[in-house]
Write a structure and sequence with these properties.
The complex is a heterodimer of chains A (278) and B (361). Chain A has 278 residues and is mostly helical. Chain A has one domain: Orthogonal Bundle (MetI-like fold), CATH 1.10.3720. Helices cover 78% and strands 0% of the residues of chain A. The two termini of chain A are 43 Å apart. Chain B has 361 residues and is of the alpha+beta class. Chain B has 2 domains: 229 residues, Rossmann fold; 125 residues, OB fold (Dihydrolipoamide Acetyltransferase, E2P), CATH 2.40.50.100. In chain B, the strands form 4 sheets. In chain B, strands 6-7-8-3-9-10 form a 6-stranded mixed sheet, sandwiched between helices. Chain B has a 5-stranded antiparallel sheet with strand order 13-12-11-14-20. Chain B starts with a strand and ends with a strand. The chains are: A mainly alpha (278), B alpha+beta (361). Chains A and B meet through helix 7 and helix 8 of A and helix 2 of B.
Chain lengths: 278, 361
């Protein structure tokens, strides 16, 4: 009997711990998501919002798939996200490596410097880019959008990469050198493959937010630079077509989930053995 | 000509001299061991051989050619690291193939040599597995295979046998000896375990504080240690402070305070009054009952203070008249009897006059 009481007590404890965050996620994440799904099948109201229940239609989806411009915007968004991610990897790798190789005392300071920009307001920092790019004549261009995106998201690539690189056993590089590998080979055969889990987590932290980002293209981009984020925002604020905005949101979510699934599958197949340092 | 020569190697770290004027010569095919307590400089020597560190003075010659300035990746020698340092993202076969790929061997040759080497260490069935999936013993063997596969001139081993299980250790030691004999590659082995060094090596260099105290074959080190440190570090030994009373070609007479005269031999001409230690292995001592007579030159009365019954042998600690506690290892080799003396028994401690060694202070 005692054993069963103990089990019951443990179950109760577990629920007490798990319930609040679960409840939070249900109320503020799952329910709103379901509301968005439902909204995408309703009709827009005359003065914004939604038309009264039970008016419903598939117009939003018909519209979404009916115009090639939306496919273009989706494609451009994925391209911008991919390019941003790639640039972030290229820029973050040497920095993360440098921090990981620094003496332990200096590492904390360097990590602090990486996250220091978060201490100031995001919009203020984007406005600063307007000041920088404006006089150079680069404002309102695809370049400005990519520069802003990379600037904002770089720390999200540096931190997971640093965390990964810092855990590498230096003996592995010595072993590779001892067995005849040059510096270049040591990087490509040992350091890089072992850092792939870090690159994958960093890429997820950059790629997905970039897809939904609307402030950067709105402030730094030109009329031809609008991305999915701007499109969704416009449906809710300027164009007052909530069902279409909801449909765009769902489309984006589905595409991101599909991509995440694909990455996870590829990671399980291709990165075998790297769990040791992930 | 020796395969490897160390000439007056010195390595300083700040004010600390980690390696002091070490000169060594290792022959091709030899299993050579550097033995010493941690911090004695043995690992520093190994790292200088591998090229990860460079001597401040002196030179290292391989096949008569200086290795100075040659980076680790260009040296025809491989290392088995203490942590093994297997690449976790490569299969066992991938790890073993790595040095061959670095040497630019052809695909066919790599395949064949990897298969040969894996079968040599009995790991053919593990070729497709990843290092984190292997047991400790298997990891050890993959590391050995990776070090041997490209047939280096020299294989350096940095305490790679740190297996916690004594049975496994003995098995690995036997396997390592057989392996070294099979491949014929020169091994330079570093360890702090005297048992390991004695069991494996053709020759051992015993190190202390950056210096080689004695360099000799295992049985010579054991029976004729050059000084107090070597005597004490290798195996169990009784060290009795003595001074020379008289010395001749056939007999050396030593005087131990409060004990009397000890009969010994020493070919060296020693001056009366010279101080030192008399070193005597426990297994060369015989303990007899108080009244029993034995025809041995050295006989001292004592009392059993402690005993440790180990089955095949018993370790007796016997206190002599001057308070010195001598350790004696007696085989329990009489049918029906497993113990001969009890704690508190008055006994006679005896040994032959040629059993011990006089060590100069």
């Amino acid at each position: 009997m005692k054993a069963r009481d103990a089990t019951a007590g443990a179950t109760l404890t577990r629920w007490t711990v798990v319930a609040p965050p679960t409840l939070f996620l249900v109320v503020f994440f799952l329910l709103p998501a379901l509301i968005v799904v439902a909204a995408s099948f309703r009709e827009p109201g005359e003065f914004g919002g939604l038309a009264p229940w039970p008016a419903h239609s598939l117009d939003a989806y018909r519209f979404l798939f009916g115009d090639v411009i939306y496919v273009e915007i989706f494609a451009r968004s994925f391209l911008v996200a991919a390019l941003t991610t790639l640039l972030c990897v290229v820029l973050a790798y040497p920095l993360a490596w440098l921090i990981a190789k620094s003496p332990a005392k200096r590492r904390d300071l360097l990590v602090l410097l990486v996250i220091l920009p978060f201490a100031s307001n995001f919009l203020v920092r984007i406005y600063a880019w307007i000041m920088i790019l404006g006089p150079a004549g680069l404002l309102y261009s695809p370049f400005a959008v990519i520069a802003g995106m990379v600037y904002v998201h770089l720390p999200f690539m540096i931190l997971p990469l640093y965390t990964n690189l810092e855990k590498h056993d230096p003996a592995l590089l010595e072993a590779a050198q001892d067995l005849g590998a040059s510096a270049w080979t040591r990087f490509w055969r040992v350091t890089f493959p072992l850092s792939l889990p870090g690159i994958v987590s960093g890429s997820a932290l950059v790629f997905i937010p970039v897809l939904g980002m609307f402030a950067v293209p709105e402030l730094l981009g030109g009329t031809g630079d609008i991305l999915i984020g701007n499109l969704i925002k416009a449906q809710f604020l300027e164009d007052r077509d909530w069902p279409l905005g909801s449909a765009f949101s769902i489309m984006l979510t589905l595409l991101v989930l599909a991509l995440a699934g694909l990455t996870a599958w590829a990671a399980r197949r291709g990165l075998h053995g790297t769990q040791a340092v992930s | 000509m020796a395969l490897l020569e160390l000439k007056n190697i010195t390595r300083r770290f700040g004010s600390l001299e980690a390696v002091k004027d070490v000169t060594l010569s290792i022959a091709a095919g030899e299993f050579f061991t550097l033995l010493g307590p941690s911090g004695c400089g043995k690992t520093t020597i190994l790292r200088m051989l591998a090229g990860f560190d460079a001597p401040d003075a002196g030179d290292i010659l391989l096949d008569g050619v200086s290795l100075a300035g040659v980076p680790p990746e260009k040296r025809p020698l491989h290392t088995v690291f203490q942590s093994y340092a297997l690449f976790p993202h490569m299969t066992v076969a991938g790890n073993v193939a790595f040095p061959l790929e670095m040497a630019g061997r052809s695909g066919d040759e790599i395949k064949r040599r990897v298969a040969e080497t894996l079968s040599l260490v009995h790991l053919t069935d593990k070729a497709a597995q990843f290092p984190p999936e292997l047991s400790g013993g298997q990891t050890q063997r993959v590391a050995l295979a990776r070090g041997l596969v490209n047939q280096p001139r020299l294989l350096l081993l940095d305490e790679p046998l740190a297996a916690p299980d004594a049975n496994l250790r003995e098995e690995t030691q036997a396997a390592l000896i057989a392996l070294q004999r099979a491949v014929g590659i020169t091994f330079v082995f570093v360890t702090h375990s005297q048992q390991e060094a004695l069991a494996l090596s053709h020759r051992i260099g015993v190190m202390k504080d950056g210096r080689i105290e004695q360099c000799d074959e295992p049985d010579k080190l054991y029976t004729a240690p050059a000084n107090r440190f070597v005597a004490d570090f290798i195996g169990k030994i009784n060290l009795i402070d003595v001074e020379v009373a008289a010395s001749s070609k056939v007999l050396l007479t030593l005087r131990a305070a409060g004990l009397g005269e000890i009969a010994a031999t020493d070919p060296r001409p020693l001056k009366p009054g010279e101080r030192g230690a008399f070193a005597l292995r426990p297994e060369l001592i015989r303990i007899y009952g108080h009244q029993e007579s034995a025809d041995l030159k050295n006989r001292f009365a004592g009392r059993v203070k402690e005993l440790l019954y180990l089955g095949d042998v018993t370790l007796y600690k016997v206190e002599l008249a001057n308070g010195f506690v001598v350790e004696a290892l007696m085989p329990n080799a009489a049918p029906g009897r497993a113990k001969f003396h009890e704690v508190g028994d008055a006994v006679a401690v005896c040994w032959r006059h040629d059993a011990g060694v006089f060590l100069r202070a």
